[in-house]
Specification:
Blueprint: E1 6-14, E2 17-26, E3 31-36, H1 45-55, E4 59-68, E5 76-78, H2 80-96, H3 105-114, E6 116-118, H4 124-174, H5 178-192, H6 202-214, H7 218-235, H8 242-262, H9 266-286
Parallel strand pairs: 3-4
Antiparallel strand pairs: 1-2, 2-4, 5-6
Helix pairs in contact: 1-4, 2-3, 4-7, 4-9, 5-6, 7-8, 8-9
């Protein structure tokens, strides 16, 4: 079992730059990959997406590729050729108008500043292998964290499955006593009304039989037990779990609801409430599972 939330980070060096790759994810019904990286390295995007899909099948996964220059290394450079051409044009313009041209430090600084451009990044064919290697390391840490969180979720799920089974077992034990108890209550009400009917009276037997048929939850209890077994088997398996588990939980909820509506017994109704509460907690947690 793997959680859908995770984080991984790796650092590498290329062309004097420190490159940091971070991978993080949050819950999503499907797989959504978003990417932030320098424009110069945009051709790496398909490979990044493919690498993410090898380790994740659900969740919104964000990959951020950032770089940092060494201390003292300028993030921008001057385009000296452009600056020199601009100064010559100014000189020509002044000479044509008979104006003495003596460049001042302030003028030169202004011309150079106007020709600033970002310092170049290593070409994608040079940076690509380094970035993808760092991504691979970040994804390993990312997958390990999802696996660790998934193991913790499994422990919680198994505990809640135990609570569901205990309530189910109680209902299984209680259900056969509902119809006989109804018969006793029916006879007691008849006696209180001044009507003396024998237990073997056909009308009593018919009424009790109709009640027993309406409140019979044998099939629902059998299916519910089977669904719980399927859920545990799925939770202990490898691969994608979330979508299948959501379907099984939907079926479990349907059986629990039917038991509650048919049982016609206060104590069973209380057990059904506990089943629903525990089931809702499982649903909330399964939303975190890949």
């Amino acid at each position: 079992m793997r959680s859908m939330t995770g984080y991984g980070r790796a650092v590498a060096t290329v062309g004097g730059l420190q490159v940091t790759v971070q991978v993080s994810s949050v819950n999503r019904k499907g797989l959504e990959v978003t990417l932030a990286l320098p424009d110069e390295w945009e051709p790496l995007e398909p490979g990044v997406g493919e690498a993410v899909r090898r380790v994740a099948s659900r969740g919104k996964v964000h990959v951020a590729v950032e770089y940092e220059r060494p201390a003292g290394d300028a993030a921008e450079t001057w385009d000296e050729d452009v600056a020199e051409r601009q100064v010559r044009r100014l000189e020509t313009w002044a000479r044509q108008r008979g104006v003495a041209f003596t460049p001042t430090p302030e003028l030169l600084w202004s011309v150079l500043s106007s020709s600033r451009r970002p310092a170049g990044l290593p070409a994608v064919d040079v940076a690509g292998p380094v970035v993808m290697g760092a991504l691979d390391d970040a994804l390993k840490a990312f997958a390990a964290m999802r696996q660790t969180e998934g193991a913790a979720l499994l422990v919680d799920f198994l505990s809640r499955l135990g609570a569901l089974r205990r309530n189910l077992a109680w209902v299984v034990d209680r259900a056969p006593a509902v119809a006989p108890q109804y018969r006793e209550q029916l006879l007691q009400r008849l006696r209180q009304a001044g009507l003396s009917l024998d237990v073997a009276d056909e009308r009593v037997l018919k009424e009790v039989a109709l009640f027993a048929d309406r409140c019979d939850v044998t099939e629902e209890l059998t299916r519910l037990g089977s669904h719980l077994e399927q859920l545990e088997t799925l939770l202990r398996s490898d691969g994608e779990i979330g979508r299948k588990a959501e379907f099984i939980l939907q079926e479990i909820g349907r059986e629990v609801h039917t038991i509650g509506s048919k049982a016609n017994d206060l104590s069973i109704s209380r057990a059904v409430i506990e089943l629903k509460n525990e089931l809702e907690r499982v649903r909330e947690q399964i939303a975190n599972v890949e």
